[in-house]
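Quick log. Single chain, no ligands specified.
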Amino acid sequence: MTTLVRQLKSAFVIASVNSTDNGVQITWKDGHESFYHNLWLRDTCHCPQCFQQDTLSLNSGEGEGHDPLKMPLNPVIQEVKCDRQGNLDIIWGGEEPGHHSVFDPSWLRVHCQKDPALKQRRKPQLWDASLSIPHFDYQEVMRDDEALLQWLEKMVELGVSMIDNVPPDKAGFQSLVERVGPIQQRYHPINIFTLDTANKLDGNIHHAYQYMKRLHNHTDHVNYNVPPKLQFLGCVEYDNPDNDKQAYSTLVDGFKIAKVFRTQQPKYFELLTQEYIPTGRRRLGVEEKVSERERGTTKYQWETYHRHHVINLDGNGEVYQIRHHENDRVPLDVSHDKIQDLYAAYQAFTALAESPEYTAEFLIAPGQVLVNDNWRLLHGRTAIHNPSLKRILLGAYMKPETFRSRLRLLLGKKSGMPNMWLMGCSDRALEILADRMNA
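-> predicted structure:
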């Protein structure tokens, strides 16, 4: 239970409590009023009989305090009050006389169904070619959880960031990625891959390694059921004799161009949210050795196929994911009466993805790691005209749940709440709890 009532913001301090026929009415010090049904309160009891504080799970076995088959559908409150620590204190009567439940007020507030703050979604900041990428220092994010949280929250806001002063080697790169969480397993034999312009054979492996050509803006692994959430690209070496913008990275905010597309071409926007675009990849006995720095070669086989929408909407009609990769597209699976419109829609969206108005160009310098949200941003690379240019990048991916988990853990830590009250909170609830204390 919280013992810092005086430091809590008024929204998390109970002013008064009243019992009704079927629930509890709470008035908070900020004036907001909440109602909690008796069954909901009894079902969420965190007492030792009902809740295992070591495993953070319900005691729901036969004969346990939270046996769902024996849970009364009309629990009766014998006594309700606000205790000295500011918690909601309930003694149950009826079928369970004497059962005792105590609820943390902050936890109760972020479970109020009438609180509009819980329904507010953190809005991403959309951007175009004028993007100024936020920078973070490697040492700071490695040693300070607050700096790590600021970095990950900026990823939610913008979808991109640059980490400076990273040791320009695999160990330094890997340590940064794993500061957030485990590296995602790829279909390739190695999870940290190398892009090296000195290797003249790697273009046979994948189009991304064909360095003399421009790499068009795209999202990665569109043919996965669940594509990677984060992409990490770290520069080990960059030497450009011409001192121009060869081998510069390009980024496009997919949410931004989707908003433009929705306004300018609503019919085409609807098509790309409803019609499926099939993608696939087939690799049989390919040897992957994309840098002389990697020892040995490994043969692998891989076959995948997936149908997906280019623009994906959530239950509120908001864009939450872009999947766009022209090179991985396979024959369309669409009716004859829709194919021309679908292709026209695809062309129009691709034109926006390649438009200079929305494409930011910048260099990843040695010692820097670019991190981008692969569910939101399209990335690419300018062409290389001088064969003498040297560029070596390290790359890795991260699953969406790994990123989300680290962000949730950091928000929970910042809130100062005990683990038993953090477990099961929504992402939005954790954001609110992290800001519950007065400065």
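The longest helix spans residues 400-415.
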